[in-house]
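Handout, section 3.2

Students often ask what a structure token actually looks like in practice. Rather than define it abstractly, here is a full record for DUF5689 domain-containing protein. The first block is the sequence as you would receive it.
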Amino acid sequence: MKANKFLTLFFGMIAALAIVSCVQDDDFNIPSSFGDEENEKLEALIASSTVISIAEAKAMYEEGEFIDPVDTEIYIKGYVSSSDRTGNFFKEFFIQDSPTNPTTAIKVVLNLVDTYNKYNVGREVYVNLNGLYIGEERVGNGVITIGGGTETDQYGTTVTQLSSNQTQNKVLRSTVTEEMVPLEVSFSQISGAHVGLLVKVNGVEFEDSLEGERYFDSEQDFDTRRTLQACDGFDYSNFQLETSAFASFKYELLPTANGAITAVVNKTFDGASLVLALNDLDGVNFTDTRCSLLNIEDFSVVLEEDFESMPTGTTVSGNGWTAYAEEGNYNWRVLNSSDNQNNTNIASMGAYNSGTPVNIAWLISPAIDLDAQDLEFVSFESSNSFSDDSELELLISTDWDGNQANIATATWSALPGTIVGDSTHYQDWVGSGLISLSEYSGNVYIAFKYVGGDNSGSNAPSTGTIDGTFEIDNFRVLVEN
């Protein structure tokens, strides 16, 4: 009897050691190779179907068409950017189109937990779209999603989770796991186009009032949003970090230092706001001293334009400004607006009713001498009216000679200022933030380039609405005293 008890205890200890050696701290080994069955499915998919980009797949829904679940023999390839290892994501993951310098991502919803064991961050994943649907997981949230079916209620049609069989047969892994290099952005640069992408924002910190708080507020039921801030000249730029009630790190204290955050761009449940969502706390690297704002008293305004001295209803002119219609007849005009600071003049450009399918119009500042001082910033405010797919670009040139005929041939580089988004209410104005010009020298010009068109006629593009309006006001150049 004693011998039997000893052997039972001995073999029990061996079994326990075997289990412990396989699993440490709930971190399971990620498989690097698969059985013949999964490899054969992937090889068959690649051989029999046509690959399309994630952007092309998303556009199929944006044009109002679901993928035909019967006849479409296409697939997409992407790299997993999100992880449910800590519980901050649930029954979903994003795949982006490249492990470096990604441009777009799409969500996959599935009836599976602990997906990080199979679809780990960086894993190369192929999704067979035949028989699946592309749409929104929740009506109106704007997050384009792959699902296994659809359901319709009074609000519209949404996609539903992939079943276990659909996941096994349609969402196939290769043996490749790439190192994911987060896309470096500023708060002002993050837009809806970044949803699902792994990004990195430098020089950020939690706002001052959050000292002593934790990632999750125990008085809330589902998600907690904490405000991140970054010094942006004389003021802070802000963004929200959202943490789930099921995140394993939810009760960790928020760090008080400054540094870099690496997270996935997501949307709130209702789709109303963009947020950042952590895969884990390894994405929070706050070890630097908190940032300090610039003092406005140390700067002077050397150029200011509020368009008040220009007659309304006419093309923008005077004070060294240039308005140029590169294509189409419509140009930047001075209008009076009751929305911005009580009946003030603004510069406005829109293609509505222009009668031409393409409208390109430039609004260019006077020359700015950057050699006269060491530190310069530019700022402005922008608003829109149903801008839709029309665009407004903020550009700078160091080689334009001031001649309208040479605008299109001069070298123009993008500046990182915030421009109003289409989702902003048409009566609201958005500040650009302080845009540093310190990397430039000599005489420079700042340009607002409008690209749109009247697509209401028979010769107009077949998709999108590009006849929206953009408005500019309170343009300033500030220099250090």
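Discussion prompt for tutorial groups: Confidence is low (pLDDT under 50) at residues 1-32, 458-464. How would you have guessed this from the sequence alone?
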